[in-house]
Design brief:
Elements (H helix, E strand, L loop, with lengths): L8 E4 L8 E11 L5 E2 L3 E14 L23 E12 L8 E5 L8 H5 L17 H4 L3 H4 L3 E5 L15 E2 L11 E8 L5 E5 L19 E5 L7 E2 L5 E2 L1 E4 L2 E4 L3 E8 L4 E9 L6 H15 L14 E7 L1 H11 L14 E5 L39 E2 L6 E2 L12 E7 L1 H5 L21 E6 L26 H17 L16 E2 L22 E4 L4 H4 L8 E5 L4 E2 L14 H4 L3 E4 L20 E4 L4 H7 L6 H4 L3 H18 L7 H15 L4
Length: 678
């Protein structure tokens, strides 16, 4: 690899296309993998640096940012903020495919290359590092197809340990010198007894307590999500940390005398002041993508007219971010032009998040035993409007988005989202009795028998009782990405939606699932529930929560996929190795005793439960599922069935023929591993 050209230049971008981007500082410019050529797109280059923005708070496009009226302004009356960025693009943009693929960062990490290119490297934080090694770029799929790749930081509170992670730098609110105050809620549980803990979620940056002695500061503990809160006396805890066996005041941490007990749910509500204007992070995404799509940059080697389409991809939290981006009006730029032509909200469920609200904690999500009652799994769920018969509210996730700013939308997800993210509400009526209609510009894809993200193989046992699920559906997402690009380029419709439905009987209540009695395998008592939650009268209209904790009403009915006699799901998109299976693949796993209550669904995990190898093993274990030897005559027989199933998917547009050899190699590795003596 050539040496990085550390430019540290301040580059003025004079462009009528995006006056909101006022300059770019390029800190690193390199040729990707020493100028390796990728098919028709040729060699790629990488730019890393910081984008600086200025936004006019009086522009209607900027008024969708919560609290922008309280952001400090410069002498020109504009709000300043910035974000770091990574741009990977063909050196000759005339060889590019004309589409910028925006990777919405996940808590600072960059996952376009890991997911679509099957890239990998060592180290817990490697996907938040600078892509520079061959393993960072994987098989080069995205580059071979000519995409321009862009990441722009949008989250201000990214964990400090992610030094090279994508993050935004946004101002705090001010009100003529007076503090803007409010309540912040932090709930958590610990796996081992500890004396102190951060107020933030998972080591993010916390909102510090503004008045440690305020009467509004309350710490409670309870045993279950719906359990009764018990107030912990104020003289037993404080905002502090333990350092060198001393208790030291710390506005970002909480200390409990005697320590926090494992697997209890603790919740502290405290007073804070002057939050960051976090919605500016979404405005930064908007303005950066608009610059590339409608403008040009000599410094970034992007001539005008070489990018005319944009796809926003979000995986998990970023998928919810993309849903909020469209819902809140950010897909119209400051000159009233459409920003993203396509949105791929992946493994997001029917959910949103705290991305454009006062005191929003972007990392907070919702799981069966993590992060309770944050604005995540809340009405509305479906894209089109429907009425909640309990509250009387009528709304859809995208029902208020004007047609001219509405992108093509994928909502795609694994089986975990049914069990751990209330996914059925995305395509059913709120009473769970009927299928709900979809928008014409929308596709819903469910990858049957899959967990939140496929694990490596052989699958490890992590937070669950069973090995994690290695059902790799990213192969289908590669095909669907190209289909989205065709859809927005020439109008070729994307493959039809595929998901279980009430009408076909593939989507049922938990008690109606025909789960086989597999020895030693527990079945979840209840899926993750979504509730009717009241955050106060200013939440929906102003993005301001005035009730902490919120009032929680009755849950919505949640449905889950039906299964066959093997325990494998019968509807939706099934990968070839689920059609010709070697195991039971589920979207759920139950916590093991080291991670949580053993009757609760483990967050983001599925299960891999291999079939017995032989009939004798099956009979000894009293396993109701046929053994591998009873299903397949040989390894070749098995591989042939996988290939046949894959060819059908290729014909339907859900897989790529170029990926078939590697998929069959992957299936063979699974066979070889499982047919060993165990």
């Amino acid at each position: 690899m050539q040496l990085a050209r550390i430019l540290c230049l301040t580059i003025l971008l004079i462009s009528t296309a995006s006056a909101e981007v006022v300059r770019v500082e390029i800190e690193r410019h390199t040729d990707v993998l020493d100028g390796r050529s990728y098919g028709l797109a040729g060699p790629y280059e990488q730019f890393i640096g910081t984008i600086y923005f200025e936004n006019d708070p009086s522009n209607p496009a900027n008024q969708v940012v919560t609290d922008i009226e309280y952001a400090p302004t410069n002498a020109a009356g504009r709000v300043e903020h910035s974000a770091n960025f990574t741009l990977i693009k063909p050196i000759d943009m005339n060889r590019a495919n004309g589409t910028v693929l925006f990777g919405t960062s996940n808590r600072g990490s960059r996952r376009l290359l890991t997911f679509f290119n099957h890239a990998h490297a060592e180290g817990e934080e490697w996907d938040a590092q600078i892509p520079e090694l061959e393993e960072h770029y994987g098989d080069g799929f995205l580059m071979e197809k000519g995409f321009t790749l862009l990441w722009v930081g949008w989250q201000w509170d990214v964990p400090a340990r992610r030094v090279h992670g994508s993050r935004s730098f946004v101002p705090q609110t001010v009100d003529n010198g007076n503090p803007i105050e409010g309540l912040v809620r932090s709930d958590f549980h610990v796996r081992t007894r500890v004396l102190d803990r951060t107020l933030a979620d998972r080591n993010h940056v916390a909102y510090p307590v503004s008045d440690p002695d305020a009467p509004e500061n309350v710490l409670t503990v309870r045993d279950t999500r719906e359990g009764q809160r018990r107030v912990i006396p104020r003289d037993q805890w404080q905002f502090a940390r333990v350092e060198n066996e001393r208790v030291v005041a710390d506005p970002s941490r909480i200390y409990l005398e005697g320590g926090f007990e494992p697997f209890k749910i603790y919740e502290v509500v405290y007073k804070a002041a002057n939050p960051q204007v976090i919605g500016l992070g979404l405005a930064g995404i908007r303005d950066a993508v608009s610059l590339l799509k409608y403008g040009s940059s000599e410094e970034l080697n992007i001539p005008a007219g070489t990018i005319d389409r944009a796809i926003g991809f979000g995986l998990s939290q970023p998928g919810r971010t993309m849903r909020v981006f469209v819902r809140d009006g950010f897909n119209a730029d400051t000159q009233q032009r459409k920003v993203f032509d396509g949105i791929m909200a992946h493994i997001a469920g029917p959910s949103r998040g705290s991305f454009n609200i006062r005191f929003g904690q972007a990392s907070r999500d919702a799981h069966p035993f993590i992060n309770f009652y944050y604005p995540t799994d809340i009405f509305p769920f479906t894209s089109l409007a429907q009425t909640d018969p309990v509250t009387g509210r009528t709304e859809g996730m995208f029902s208020d988005v004007p047609d001219e700013f509405m992108p093509k939308i994928y909502n795609s997800y694994s089986s975990y989202e049914y069990w751990g993210r209330a996914a059925s509400l995305m395509h059913t009526t709120v009473d769970g009795r009927r299928d709900a209609p979809l928008m014409e510009n929308e596709r819903v894809y469910h990858f049957a028998g899959a967990q939140h993200l496929p694990t490596e193989f052989p699958p490890p046992v992590e937070n669950g009782q069973q090995p994690n699920n290695p059902n790799d559906f990213s192969w289908m997402m590669r095909a669907l990405l190209l289909a989205m690009n065709d859809w927005i380029t020439d109008g070729t419709p994307a493959p039809p939606s595929r998901f279980p439905s009430v009408e076909t009987g593939d989507l049922v209540a938990r008690d109606d699932v025909n789960w086989p009695d597999i020895p030693g395998i527990g079945f979840p008592e209840v899926p993750h529930l979504a509730y009717r939650v009241d955050y106060g009268p200013r939440f929906e209209s102003e993005g301001i929560i005035t009730k902490e904790p919120p009032d929680v009403g009755e849950p919505y009915p949640i449905l889950v996929p039906q299964v066959n006699s093997d325990g494998n799901e019968v509807g939706a998109l099934r990968m070839p190795w689920l059609i010709a299976p070697l195991a039971t693949y589920t979207g759920w796993n139950l916590y093991n005793e080291s991670y949580g209550p053993t009757d609760v669904i483990a967050h983001m995990s599925g299960s891999f439960i291999p079939f017995p190898r032989t009939r004798a093993e099956r009979e000894r274990a009293d396993d109701p599922r046929l053994s591998i030897e009873e299903r397949y005559d040989s390894r070749d027989h098995y591989i042939g069935l996988v290939a046949g199933a894959a060819l059908e998917h290729i014909e339907q547009g859900y897989l790529l023929d170029e990926d078939l050899p590697e998929m069959l190699e992957q299936a063979g590795e699974h066979w070889d591993y499982l047919m060993q003596e165990r």
